[in-house]
Write a structure and sequence with these properties.
The protein folds into three domains: 59 residues, Nucleic acid-binding proteins (OB fold (Dihydrolipoamide Acetyltransferase, E2P), Beta Barrel); 74 residues, DNA polymerase, domain 1; 46 residues. The chain is 40% helix and 20% strand. The longest helix has 13 residues. The chain has 202 residues and is α+β, with helices and mostly antiparallel strands.
C-alpha cells in the first residue's frame, strides 16, 4: 500500500493529475485537480490511497494526510464510493461537511452528487463524533467560512471548472443554473470550482 508519492506534476485534467516519479507517470484522481499546477522543476508530495476493485486499480491523491484520512472514512460509509467521496472533498470546505455531520444536517449532505437521504443518514450514524481525533486540523475553524479570494481568470479556466464539475457527477442542468453567477466573477479554476460547489450545495 502506498503512503505518498513525491514527484513533479506533468499533467492536470478535470478528473486527475499525472505525477512523474523516476520516469513513471502515475495517474492520480484528486478532489480538485486544478489545485495542482504543472511544474517540472518542483517536486510535490501527494498522499496516496490505493483503491482496488476486481476490474480496476486506482490511485487517489491528496494535499494533506488529513484529507486522505477523511476520504477513507467516507469510503467506509455504505453508499459512498470513491467518486462520491471525491465530490464531497472537492467542496473545499471539509469543516462544513464535518459541521453538517455533527449537527445532523441531512439537507446539506444530500446536495452532493450521489448522496440521498439514506446515505446522508448513514454518514451521520457512522461518522458523528468520530472525526475530531481523525481530522483534528479541521475542527478549530469548524464554524468559520473562508472567503474566496479574487484572482485573474480566463475563459479557459472557467471551461476547465465546468469540465471538473461534470467529472464530479453534476448534470448540465445543475451547472447551467449557476453558470451565469460564476461568469460574473474573475477567479482561478480552483476558485470557480469551490464557488460552484458552494452554490450547488446551498
Amino acid at each position: 500500500m502506498y503512503e505518498y508519492i513525491k514527484g513533479t506534476i506533468e499533467m492536470v485534467t478535470p478528473e486527475y493529475i499525472v505525477v512523474d516519479n523516476n520516469g513513471i507517470g502515475y495517474q492520480i484522481f484528486t478532489p480538485n485537480p486544478f489545485v495542482f499546477k504543472v511544474n517540472q522543476s518542483i517536486s510535490e508530495k501527494i498522499f496516496i490511497y490505493q483503491h482496488v476493485r476486481e476490474d480496476a486499480l486506482s490511485l487517489f491523491g491528496f494535499h494533506t494526510l488529513s484529507e486522505k484520512t477523511l476520504f477513507k472514512k467516507l469510503l467506509n460509509v455504505s453508499g459512498i464510493g470513491p467518486k462520491g467521496a471525491l465530490a464531497i472533498l472537492a467542496f473545499g470546505e471539509p469543516s462544513q461537511v464535518i459541521e453538517a455531520i455533527e449537527n445532523e444536517n441531512e439537507t446539506f449532505l444530500t446536495k452532493f452528487p450521489g448522496v440521498g437521504k439514506k446515505t446522508a443518514r448513514q454518514m451521520i450514524l457512522d461518522l458523528k463524533g468520530k472525526l475530531q481525533d481523525i481530522v483534528p486540523d479541521y475542527f478549530p475553524n469548524l464554524f468559520n467560512t473562508d472567503t474566496v479570494e479574487q484572482a485573474a481568470q480566463t475563459s479557459a479556466q472557467f471551461d476547465e471548472a465546468i469540465l471538473a464539475l461534470k467529472a464530479l457527477g453534476y448534470s448540465d442542468k445543475e451547472i447551467k443554473k449557476i453558470s451565469s453567477d460564476l461568469q460574473k466573477e474573475k477567479l482561478t479554476t480552483d476558485q470557480y470550482i469551490k464557488m460552484a460547489l458552494k452554490k450547488l450545495v446551498k
